[in-house]
Amino acid sequence: MKKKEYILHYDMVFGNLLSVAILFFMIIFTWVIVKLTGVQVFNNVLSFLETDNFALELLLFYILMFAWMMLHEVIHAIAYQIGGANPNNIVFGIMLEKGVFYCKCREYVSKKCIMFSLLAPFFTIGVITYIAGFFINSSLLIILSIINICGASCDLMMFLFFLKQKNDIEFKELGFSSPFCLRTTDNLENKKFIGIKSISLVKDEKETFEPVEKKLTISKFSLGFCGGLIILLILLVLLSSLI
Questions:
Q1: What value does the mean pLDDT take over residues 104-111?
Q2: Cis omega (within 30 of 0) for bond into 121
Q3: I need a labelling partner for 151 at 20 to 30 A (CA). Which of 97, 177, 200, 241 fits?
Q4: Domain boundaries, given as residue ranges, for the chain
């Protein structure tokens, strides 16, 4: 049977609600672990709040958090390549005004490849680092891991979606984050899936055509925001050295 091509859009509202639900779960889950084990891993958080360099350390935390988010996308890319994707067809982008860092695969990849890529950041800098944070007594690592796990809500949502699909399904991305394309022998029209806002059959190749993209795309807003953070960091460092 010949494969048909579809364009699908994520349900970002559902994805955001799922992220909030995961956050509440992780907070409660972490609190239970701390209470049951008696570990004092979050004592240094209180001392951080009382420090004279609170503003500087808070800024450093945000910079580290952004770096952690970018690492999330780099791991996606590595997983794509392990799954067989051509590195030349993998591009990155930063659009803070839309709330996203993204890794985009511009070629069709197998179900196995996309499922591996979806879970790779969740486990490596989410689950594994979360557990490691308790062993090395690092509240920072635990907090960053929780942020990553919450940020992987759409990845988990899509993983569950692909679990229900035929093994012959292929995936590639369009735009900067949504929509995406699927090729499959299954008829997806008129079907409903949790986390998917819409599904439409591709009737013209022009619908999925995209021009050549730079390896890294950074919006003007993101450049200004990151530049402002760097300048603020330099000023805070200079100010703290004078006090």
A1: 93
A2: no
A3: 200
A4: 4-242
